[in-house]
Amino acid sequence: xxxxxxxxxxxxxxxxxxxxxxxxxxxxxxxxxxxxxxxxxxxxxxxxxxxxxxxxxxxxxxxxxxxxxxxxxxxxxxxxxxxxxxxxxxxxxxxxxxxxxxxxxxxxxxxxxxxxxxxxxxxxxxxxxxxxxxxxxxx
Length: 139
Description:
- The protein is mostly helical.
- The chain has helices at 2-17, 55-71, 74-87, 92-104, 108-121, 128-138.
- It has a domain at 55-138: Alpha Horseshoe (Serine Threonine Protein Phosphatase 5, Tetratricopeptide repeat), CATH 1.25.40.
């Protein structure tokens, strides 16, 4: 038994004592003649965003939109509420948020349209009277 152990130990030591396998040389640094190619930037305008009906994603977008609205990032909030309205065109919360943000961004037309869509989707809302006043105020 001890012989087997000593032979195994000797074999392992000889395996480590062998010359290490050759390591490939490091890649050459680019020279002035061969500049590094920059990756192309994505052009978001080339690929229009597609929206499939997804009420769960719409709800998430509304929550993130509310967060951005609370933090004062109005353009980011508008984008999130818009996305929510596209993922679920029957979401009154999305249109209410979009109306609030557009109103704060001085986009009277956008705010008015969003508020009207909100009232169309939820005519019996608790704040319906307030929203109607806002629509009148927007002209």
